[in-house]
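Deliverable D5.2: sample structural annotation.
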Amino acid sequence: MPTPSLILVPARFKTGKLYTPVATTSGGVVLGASGDFNVTRATTATRVNASGYIESVASGIPRLDYYTSGGTAGCPALLVEPSGSNTLSGSVSIDTGWTITADTTITSGIVSPSGSTNATLFQATNTASRVRQAATLVSGTTYTFSCFGKFGSLSSGFTMNVFDENAASYGSGVCQAFNLNEGTLGASGTIGAGFTLQSVGMENYGNDWYRCRMTVLMSYTPTTPRVGFRMGTQITGGRPLSVANGTVNVWGAQLETGSVATSYIPTTTGSVSRNADVITLSGAVSGCIGQTEGTIYAEVDVRNFPSPSRLIGLSDGTSNNRIIIIFNTSNRIRLLATVSTASQVDINSSSQVAGIFKIAVGYALNDYAFYINGVQVGTDTIALVPACSSIFLGNAETGLAGSNINDRIRAAALYTTRLTNDQLAALTTP
């Protein structure tokens, strides 16, 4: 197997930079600092650190995220996300901005997924106990409501809901129960019209904490929009009821537009926004991009399939000349190549299931091949090769924030030679 001209395994960084352990030209010239990726994000953002806790990092710091689905810290991967906003107030300890009924008792000082004692234990004294906050919900928009929950001692979990409030209950809305004692989804409920529950899920963050989420499409604008939760997993007539004396630990509520629960954005007295991560490399790096032939490799931990979103791309800084790998509609992975705005290659995989993907593209004049996890997805034998001078990780090839993958890149590499199909298969075999 030839030696890559560029290797990125996220490990070393500083503000505005992500270091590459190997970056050389096709002639073997070491690029040094000019082979390191530029990182732009003008706000703080959160990640899971090497100890398994959620923490904030400063603006311009690449996010090496150690989260694994088993709830323990694993190897770091580069987290790349679009801009986003948490529109809920008091999201950390569920205090400012929340209405907590008098029949609900609270205990503060619970250790949260951040490792700090800023989570809260809620206990219902009767079935009417509830916690809720006014929200902005607009017709035609998709929202994702997420919250961290941990099993209490007197009930199996909690039930999250998005609704149009009506007196002590609500006239229309949706709810989803989460069995925090088992780490499994419970029942869902719907009442009235205008709320469509599109997807639900929960992720293990360790220490018995789960991040629970529900994605809802609005088909009308509620008069009194709310989000909230009840203690327990009891649903009657499409609505949740608390379990008398039921308890649940809660932390980190978030309401955002879109179908993905992005990384947690802490808030206190109002909405907080996070800027997009932009990871790029250009200039002298054109020497480590195969100009007449080459190979692109990427390994990515896919948990979301937002469409369309970029995984990795080569370009001249525009969309006129490029080779890019993107996530497409219906959970497909797509290879595109363009020369002077003219399409050269367009190959789609079949629908995929979230997981770890090793992806490679070998390219040369009239000789493209696309591989995913050791299997050939497709080839193209009538295609030109674009002249490229820039590399983009997880964002648009124009260098602007947009179409971010909303996921974690575990590794990337370039070769200035077109690997054989057998080598491409070997390189991507899990």
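Annotation notes: DSSP finds one helix and 36 strands in the chain. The longest strand covers residues 169-179.
The annotation will be released with the project's public dataset once the embargo ends.
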